[in-house]
Design goal:
With about 300 residues, this protein is of the alpha/beta class. The protein has one domain: HAD superfamily/HAD-like (Rossmann fold), CATH 3.40.50.1000. The longest helix is centred in the first third of the chain and has 21 residues. About 5% of the residues have low confidence.
Amino acid sequence: MLTSATFLFLGVVILLLIHPRTKTMSPTRIILDFDGTITTKDTISILASSALSFHSQNGYDLSSTWKEVVDAYTNDYNTFTGSYNPVKEERKTFKEEIEFLRAGKEVEERSFARVSESGLFKGIREEDWDAFGREAVRKGDVAIRNGFREFVERIEKKDGRWGVVSVTFSRGFVRGVLDVGEEIEVLANQPDEEEGILSGPEGEKGRVLTSSDDKLGAMKMIMRRWGTDGTSGKVVYIGDSSTDIECLAKDGIIGVIMSEDGRSSLIQTMKRIGVKVVHIEEFGDRLRGPYWARDFEEILQSPLFS
């Protein structure tokens, strides 16, 4: 004769058979790139336009100065890529690609120094940058990628945490676009008000966040502040460009590449260096990625958030 305890046991077994324990726990720690990941396009030109407009209203036209900065960077970068060996088509390993990206750090740092010296950001307070970001979204100059607001709401409802790592020029602009307070970690560069000189997340003038290894260091900084090393629970990094590659591939990190069609330049780079990228719908504990998704809605609907 079956007892009530036996019926209870059989009921649990049946439930496990119907709903096997193969689902994964939703991630609790999310670190995101900003330009082209949270936003649909790069925002540097919008950020610069905001600064140019600020100075124009005060009687200063710095448009030619900004053009000189952009032209100098373009020439510098083209010279670097044109002389670097191995050339793009011959870089076939992750190590070779990282060496290329790190070698280009000097080009980026020289450009950031030109920006600091240009005076473009002089006299602009962090609260002004915040206002510029909010206004850019209001006017439609900056668009947030589909599903982002719901994405962060889901994280916060699960008592998770999220933060941003960016090589952009202004932390305040990022905060304004995202409409977030100080409780959200945003590690990016920020110009000082007095001289407009850029500093990195640690506040040291001239020491800026520019490259893939800088982003990796910033990601580790956020993780330390959160008290995690990626071994307990899930830490997800979402990015879209070459500056994200070291974060996406870090041990213990679930990497997701944001790409509207699955054929972005970063995905092509991954393919060239022998790294297979699969769609987020194929997420599973045995397959650590990297993955790709068109937007945050796809990530929310994937097994990653099951």
